[in-house]
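Most newcomers find our protein records easier to grasp once they have seen one. Read left to right, the backbone structure tokens trace the chain's path through space. Nothing more is needed to start thinking about how sequence determines fold. An example says more than a description, so a record of this kind follows:
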Amino acid sequence: MTDRAPDDHIPTRLLVVGMAGPDGVIVTDDVLPVAEVCGQPADQVRDELDLLVDEGLFATEDGRRYRPTDAGRALLDSALERARLAYVQDAAGRGWDRRWRLVAVAPVDDEGVASFVRRLFELGAGQIQNGLYVSPHRWGPVVGAEAERLGVADAVTTATTDELEIGGERDPRTLAARLWPLDDLARRYQAFIDHYKEVPDALTDMRERRERLTEAEFLAGALTAVIDFQECFGRDPLLPPELLPRPWPGREARELVMRGRRLGVLARERHERPALFSVFEEVIDAL
């Protein structure tokens, strides 16, 4: 499925968090066998779990089961919501109510404010100017909750408008191209597509020849593909289709990921749904 060695450029955190169950719990005994076939030493996995605890994202009483804290649950929920949003918009071909959501942040030299601004960018904000951010998504409740959590609500002002003009420009698609680096993102998605586009046909041919992927081949290939995809997806503000160039390679890349995974499951020696990233697949299957 990939020309990389299984242990090359595979972040341990992505593997560990990708093994979280529907309740967010990570079970060490489930992670270690998967990590082993992906070339990740057990000590490296345990170090990553300890780091998740040190960062306040997970807690454990016995070193075997790691439960998400409120911050960890928010992190997992945010990742799942991003996946759900992307595939919902792909399926509908639309997703915008033609309204812009603005957030103004007072110029306060405060770590909480800096963390809040970083969170806005994680939520896909575009920056109009210093201290003024925008999104086409209904992010009000999340923005408000984050401002409260970080103790910066007094420094935050929000507004909604259906008439946004920047430098004399009002066309929504033109504004989107100015506010977000869509050309660079499109190139990244296209490079991912070019690298992996032959994988589905290769897996189909394997099935027809009654060949099987070993567990090591499947898991290492799946993990590497997700890492490469995340290099694109993690930068994607997930703008509604109405604001994107057409055709948009992000949609093709997401379809390629899901088709490759599903064919890979059918081609592997063990046909049951793998634990790695299964929560994300369940979210998408439920749409």
